[in-house]
Write a structure and sequence with these properties.
This protein has about 180 residues and is α+β, with helices and mostly antiparallel strands. It is built from six helices and six strands; from the N terminus they run αββββαββαααα.
Length: about 180
C-alpha cells in the first residue's frame, strides 16, 4: 500500500491526501481516489469511471460497475498501469472541474458501495491508571525489596572480609595465579 500511495503522490501533483471512513482518500476538487487495504487484497477506488473502463483490459480485478480495481496478488502490483490510471484520472478530473460537473462525496460512496456506518473509526481506547493508594503500596514494596537486596549484599561483603577474602572466587583466583 505504501508503494501505491507514494506513486499516487508522485504522479498526481496537487492531490490532497486524507484518511476517512477507514480509507486513504486522494482529493482534487473532491474525492478522486480511495485506497483500501484488506487482509489479503488492496482496492483502488477511482472516481472517474471512464478511466476505469478505458483500462479494463490491462488489469485483472477491474469492476467497472463499482469503478474500482482489486489487487489480489500484492507481490505483483502493476504499478505502471496504475500510474496510467492515476494520470488519466487527474486529467479527466481537471476537465470535469472546468465543465463544472463534479461528483459529490455521497455519490462516490454510493458508486463504490461504501457504507459510512460500516467503516466508522472505532472509539479511542483510554488508558486506565492505578489509584494513588495502590501506587504508594507498590512503591513501598519495591523499596523494601531494594533494602532486602542491600542487606544481603552487605552480609556477603562482611563474610568475605572475615574470611580474609577467601571466598570461592578469591580461592580460584589465587589458584590460577599459583599455577603460573
Amino acid at each position: 500500500m505504501a508503494r501505491v500511495c507514494s506513486m499516487i503522490r508522485r504522479s498526481a501533483r496537487g492531490v490532497r491526501e486524507s484518511m476517512r471512513y477507514g480509507l486513504a482518500f486522494y482529493e482534487l476538487d473532491g474525492p478522486l481516489f480511495a485506497l483500501e487495504s484488506g487482509r489479503r487484497h488492496m482496492s483502488l477506488y477511482v472516481a472517474e469511471q471512464d478511466v476505469v473502463v478505458k483500462h479494463k483490459e490491462s488489469l485483472p480485478g477491474v469492476n467497472t460497475a463499482r469503478s474500482y480495481v482489486k489487487f489480489s496478488d500484492l507481490n505483483r502490483l502493476p504499478l505502471d498501469v496504475v500510474e496510467k490510471i492515476v494520470r488519466d484520472s487527474v486529467a479527466a478530473r481537471r476537465t470535469r472541474a472546468q465543465q463544472g460537473s463534479l461528483p459529490t462525496q455521497a455519490e462516490l460512496l454510493k458508486l463504490w458501495a461504501i457504507k459510512e456506518e460500516a467503516v466508522q473509526v472505532p472509539a479511542p481506547v483510554a488508558k486506565a491508571t492505578a489509584p494513588a493508594a495502590k501506587s504508594k503500596a507498590l512503591k513501598s514494596v519495591v523499596q523494601k525489596s531494594k533494602s532486602v537486596r542491600a542487606l544481603a549484599a552487605a552480609k556477603t561483603s562482611r563474610s568475605a572480609a572475615k574470611s580474609g577474602g577467601r571466598t570461592a572466587v578469591g580461592l580460584s583466583a589465587k589458584k590460577a595465579g599459583a599455577g603460573r
